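Worked Example 4.2. Consider the chain below.
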Amino acid sequence: MKRLAFILCIAMVMAGCKKEDRSAKLLDAYHALNERLSAEFEQIEDQAQADSIIAAFVEEGFALQQAAPESEAAYVILEELYYMLSPEQKEQAFAVLNADSLESHGLLRHYTAFQAEKKTAEGMMFTDFSAINKDGEEVALSSFVGQKEYLLVDFWASWCGPCRRSMPGLKDLLIAHGDKLAIVGISRDDSEESWLQAVEALELPWPQLRDVNSDGAKTYGILFIPNLILINREGTIIARNPSHEEIAEIVK
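Applying the procedure from the previous section yields the following C-alpha coordinates:
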Protein backbone atom coordinates (compact mmCIF):
# COMPACT_ATOMS: atom_id res chain seq x y z
CA MET A 1 0.00 0.00 0.00
CA LYS A 2 2.82 2.43 0.79
CA ARG A 3 4.37 1.88 -2.64
CA LEU A 4 1.02 2.37 -4.38
CA ALA A 5 0.43 5.56 -2.44
CA PHE A 6 3.90 6.79 -3.42
CA ILE A 7 3.22 6.15 -7.11
CA LEU A 8 -0.18 7.88 -7.00
CA CYS A 9 1.32 10.84 -5.15
CA ILE A 10 4.05 11.29 -7.73
CA ALA A 11 1.52 11.09 -10.55
CA MET A 12 -0.58 13.85 -9.00
CA VAL A 13 2.45 16.06 -8.39
CA MET A 14 3.60 15.70 -11.98
CA ALA A 15 0.11 16.43 -13.31
CA GLY A 16 0.07 19.71 -11.44
CA CYS A 17 3.56 20.81 -12.51
CA LYS A 18 4.50 22.98 -15.42
CA LYS A 19 6.60 21.09 -17.94
CA GLU A 20 9.76 23.01 -17.09
CA ASP A 21 9.36 22.16 -13.39
CA ARG A 22 8.85 18.44 -13.82
CA SER A 23 12.45 17.52 -14.41
CA ALA A 24 13.73 19.29 -11.30
CA LYS A 25 11.01 17.80 -9.12
CA LEU A 26 11.66 14.31 -10.47
CA LEU A 27 15.38 14.59 -9.79
CA ASP A 28 14.75 15.89 -6.29
CA ALA A 29 12.43 12.97 -5.60
CA TYR A 30 14.92 10.47 -7.06
CA HIS A 31 17.80 11.89 -5.02
CA ALA A 32 15.64 11.65 -1.90
CA LEU A 33 14.91 8.03 -2.79
CA ASN A 34 18.64 7.32 -3.12
CA GLU A 35 19.31 8.89 0.26
CA ARG A 36 16.60 6.77 1.84
CA LEU A 37 18.09 3.65 0.26
CA SER A 38 21.52 4.50 1.67
CA ALA A 39 20.06 5.05 5.14
CA GLU A 40 18.16 1.76 5.04
CA PHE A 41 21.25 -0.14 3.94
CA GLU A 42 23.11 1.05 7.02
CA GLN A 43 20.67 -1.03 9.11
CA ILE A 44 20.68 -4.10 6.89
CA GLU A 45 20.86 -7.48 8.62
CA ASP A 46 20.64 -10.14 5.91
CA GLN A 47 20.48 -10.71 2.15
CA ALA A 48 16.70 -11.16 2.10
CA GLN A 49 16.30 -7.73 3.66
CA ALA A 50 18.72 -6.24 1.14
CA ASP A 51 16.80 -7.78 -1.75
CA SER A 52 13.54 -6.37 -0.41
CA ILE A 53 15.00 -2.87 -0.05
CA ILE A 54 16.45 -2.94 -3.57
CA ALA A 55 13.16 -4.22 -5.04
CA ALA A 56 11.27 -1.36 -3.39
CA PHE A 57 13.86 1.15 -4.62
CA VAL A 58 13.58 -0.08 -8.22
CA GLU A 59 9.78 -0.01 -8.13
CA GLU A 60 9.62 3.52 -6.75
CA GLY A 61 12.43 4.78 -8.97
CA PHE A 62 10.71 3.36 -12.03
CA ALA A 63 7.48 5.09 -10.99
CA LEU A 64 9.40 8.38 -11.00
CA GLN A 65 10.78 7.66 -14.47
CA GLN A 66 7.30 6.90 -15.76
CA ALA A 67 5.73 9.99 -14.20
CA ALA A 68 7.17 12.18 -16.98
CA PRO A 69 9.09 9.85 -19.33
CA GLU A 70 10.09 12.54 -21.84
CA SER A 71 11.61 14.84 -19.23
CA GLU A 72 15.38 15.27 -18.92
CA ALA A 73 15.32 13.73 -15.44
CA ALA A 74 13.53 10.62 -16.71
CA TYR A 75 16.45 9.87 -19.03
CA VAL A 76 18.90 10.20 -16.13
CA ILE A 77 16.79 7.90 -13.95
CA LEU A 78 16.39 5.35 -16.75
CA GLU A 79 20.14 5.15 -17.29
CA GLU A 80 20.84 4.69 -13.58
CA LEU A 81 18.10 2.09 -13.07
CA TYR A 82 18.52 0.23 -16.36
CA TYR A 83 20.56 -2.70 -15.04
CA MET A 84 18.04 -3.38 -12.27
CA LEU A 85 14.86 -3.17 -14.38
CA SER A 86 12.87 -6.22 -15.45
CA PRO A 87 12.40 -6.88 -19.18
CA GLU A 88 8.80 -5.69 -18.82
CA GLN A 89 9.90 -2.41 -17.25
CA LYS A 90 12.52 -1.85 -19.94
CA GLU A 91 9.89 -2.44 -22.61
CA GLN A 92 7.58 0.07 -20.96
CA ALA A 93 10.34 2.65 -20.55
CA PHE A 94 11.46 2.49 -24.18
CA ALA A 95 7.94 2.35 -25.62
CA VAL A 96 7.42 6.12 -25.39
CA LEU A 97 10.89 7.17 -26.51
CA ASN A 98 12.23 7.61 -30.05
CA ALA A 99 15.65 6.73 -31.43
CA ASP A 100 16.75 10.36 -31.76
CA SER A 101 16.04 11.13 -28.13
CA LEU A 102 17.74 7.94 -27.00
CA GLU A 103 20.90 8.76 -28.93
CA SER A 104 21.05 12.34 -27.70
CA HIS A 105 20.75 11.16 -24.11
CA GLY A 106 23.31 8.36 -24.43
CA LEU A 107 20.76 5.56 -24.17
CA LEU A 108 20.83 4.15 -27.69
CA ARG A 109 23.31 1.44 -26.68
CA HIS A 110 20.94 0.40 -23.90
CA TYR A 111 18.05 0.17 -26.34
CA THR A 112 20.12 -1.81 -28.84
CA ALA A 113 21.25 -4.18 -26.10
CA PHE A 114 17.67 -4.64 -24.93
CA GLN A 115 16.56 -5.67 -28.42
CA ALA A 116 19.33 -8.29 -28.43
CA GLU A 117 18.37 -9.34 -24.91
CA LYS A 118 14.78 -9.98 -26.02
CA LYS A 119 15.96 -12.20 -28.88
CA THR A 120 18.05 -14.23 -26.44
CA ALA A 121 15.66 -14.31 -23.51
CA GLU A 122 14.82 -17.35 -21.41
CA GLY A 123 12.90 -19.84 -23.52
CA MET A 124 14.53 -18.76 -26.80
CA MET A 125 16.97 -20.86 -28.78
CA PHE A 126 20.57 -19.77 -28.36
CA THR A 127 22.12 -17.60 -31.07
CA ASP A 128 25.52 -18.66 -32.32
CA PHE A 129 28.62 -16.46 -32.50
CA SER A 130 32.35 -17.01 -32.76
CA ALA A 131 35.21 -15.89 -30.54
CA ILE A 132 38.98 -16.44 -30.49
CA ASN A 133 40.79 -19.13 -28.52
CA LYS A 134 44.33 -18.85 -27.10
CA ASP A 135 45.74 -20.09 -30.42
CA GLY A 136 44.03 -17.30 -32.35
CA GLU A 137 41.47 -19.62 -33.91
CA GLU A 138 37.79 -18.79 -34.28
CA VAL A 139 35.58 -21.11 -32.27
CA ALA A 140 31.77 -21.12 -32.44
CA LEU A 141 29.62 -21.25 -29.32
CA SER A 142 27.62 -24.00 -31.03
CA SER A 143 30.64 -26.31 -30.76
CA PHE A 144 30.05 -26.47 -26.99
CA VAL A 145 26.25 -26.70 -26.96
CA GLY A 146 24.99 -30.26 -26.48
CA GLN A 147 28.25 -31.74 -25.21
CA LYS A 148 26.61 -32.10 -21.80
CA GLU A 149 23.12 -31.60 -20.47
CA TYR A 150 23.83 -27.93 -19.65
CA LEU A 151 26.26 -25.30 -20.88
CA LEU A 152 27.04 -22.24 -18.77
CA VAL A 153 28.37 -19.29 -20.77
CA ASP A 154 30.37 -16.94 -18.55
CA PHE A 155 31.01 -13.43 -19.89
CA TRP A 156 33.87 -11.98 -17.83
CA ALA A 157 37.15 -10.02 -18.00
CA SER A 158 40.49 -10.00 -16.21
CA TRP A 159 39.93 -6.44 -14.95
CA CYS A 160 36.49 -7.25 -13.47
CA GLY A 161 36.72 -7.78 -9.70
CA PRO A 162 33.27 -9.41 -9.30
CA CYS A 163 34.12 -11.74 -12.20
CA ARG A 164 37.31 -12.93 -10.52
CA ARG A 165 35.52 -13.35 -7.18
CA SER A 166 32.88 -15.52 -8.85
CA MET A 167 35.41 -18.04 -10.21
CA PRO A 168 35.70 -20.20 -7.05
CA GLY A 169 31.93 -20.62 -7.09
CA LEU A 170 32.00 -21.67 -10.73
CA LYS A 171 34.75 -24.18 -9.95
CA ASP A 172 32.59 -25.60 -7.15
CA LEU A 173 29.69 -25.97 -9.58
CA LEU A 174 31.89 -27.84 -12.02
CA ILE A 175 33.23 -30.13 -9.29
CA ALA A 176 29.76 -30.92 -8.01
CA HIS A 177 27.94 -31.17 -11.34
CA GLY A 178 30.64 -31.76 -13.96
CA ASP A 179 28.82 -34.87 -15.19
CA LYS A 180 25.95 -32.65 -16.40
CA LEU A 181 27.44 -29.16 -16.64
CA ALA A 182 30.03 -27.65 -19.00
CA ILE A 183 31.32 -24.08 -18.81
CA VAL A 184 32.84 -21.84 -21.47
CA GLY A 185 34.39 -18.48 -20.63
CA ILE A 186 33.91 -15.51 -22.97
CA SER A 187 36.39 -12.79 -22.10
CA ARG A 188 35.67 -9.11 -22.78
CA ASP A 189 39.38 -8.27 -22.48
CA ASP A 190 40.96 -6.01 -25.09
CA SER A 191 44.40 -7.22 -24.08
CA GLU A 192 45.24 -10.80 -25.02
CA GLU A 193 48.12 -10.77 -22.55
CA SER A 194 45.95 -9.69 -19.61
CA TRP A 195 43.36 -12.31 -20.52
CA LEU A 196 45.85 -15.18 -20.71
CA GLN A 197 47.59 -14.12 -17.50
CA ALA A 198 44.25 -14.07 -15.67
CA VAL A 199 43.25 -17.49 -17.00
CA GLU A 200 46.55 -18.89 -15.71
CA ALA A 201 46.48 -17.05 -12.38
CA LEU A 202 42.88 -18.07 -11.68
CA GLU A 203 43.59 -21.65 -12.82
CA LEU A 204 40.42 -21.84 -14.88
CA PRO A 205 39.91 -25.43 -16.09
CA TRP A 206 37.17 -24.80 -18.65
CA PRO A 207 37.58 -23.59 -22.27
CA GLN A 208 38.28 -19.87 -22.68
CA LEU A 209 37.56 -17.62 -25.65
CA ARG A 210 38.05 -13.88 -26.16
CA ASP A 211 35.22 -11.80 -27.63
CA VAL A 212 37.59 -9.76 -29.79
CA ASN A 213 34.97 -8.07 -31.98
CA SER A 214 32.26 -8.02 -29.28
CA ASP A 215 30.13 -10.35 -31.40
CA GLY A 216 29.03 -12.30 -28.33
CA ALA A 217 28.26 -9.21 -26.28
CA LYS A 218 26.25 -7.68 -29.12
CA THR A 219 24.39 -10.91 -29.81
CA TYR A 220 23.28 -11.33 -26.19
CA GLY A 221 22.95 -7.66 -25.22
CA ILE A 222 25.74 -7.82 -22.65
CA LEU A 223 26.33 -4.41 -21.05
CA PHE A 224 27.76 -5.59 -17.72
CA ILE A 225 29.86 -8.45 -16.40
CA PRO A 226 29.91 -10.98 -14.90
CA ASN A 227 27.02 -12.17 -17.02
CA LEU A 228 25.90 -15.80 -17.10
CA ILE A 229 23.72 -17.61 -19.63
CA LEU A 230 22.59 -21.20 -19.06
CA ILE A 231 21.73 -23.28 -22.14
CA ASN A 232 20.35 -26.83 -22.17
CA ARG A 233 21.37 -29.71 -24.42
CA GLU A 234 18.69 -28.82 -26.98
CA GLY A 235 20.03 -25.27 -27.29
CA THR A 236 17.27 -23.51 -25.34
CA ILE A 237 18.27 -20.66 -23.05
CA ILE A 238 16.86 -21.60 -19.67
CA ALA A 239 18.34 -18.87 -17.46
CA ARG A 240 19.97 -15.47 -17.81
CA ASN A 241 22.14 -14.30 -14.92
CA PRO A 242 21.15 -17.05 -12.49
CA SER A 243 22.93 -17.17 -9.16
CA HIS A 244 25.30 -20.04 -8.46
CA GLU A 245 22.66 -21.47 -6.13
CA GLU A 246 20.02 -21.29 -8.85
CA ILE A 247 22.34 -23.02 -11.31
CA ALA A 248 22.98 -25.83 -8.83
CA GLU A 249 19.25 -26.25 -8.26
CA ILE A 250 18.56 -26.45 -12.01
CA VAL A 251 21.41 -28.81 -12.80
CA LYS A 252 21.12 -31.29 -9.92
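Residues 1-17 have pLDDT under 50 and may be disordered. The chain has two domains: 2-119, 130-251. Compare this with Example 4.1 before moving on.
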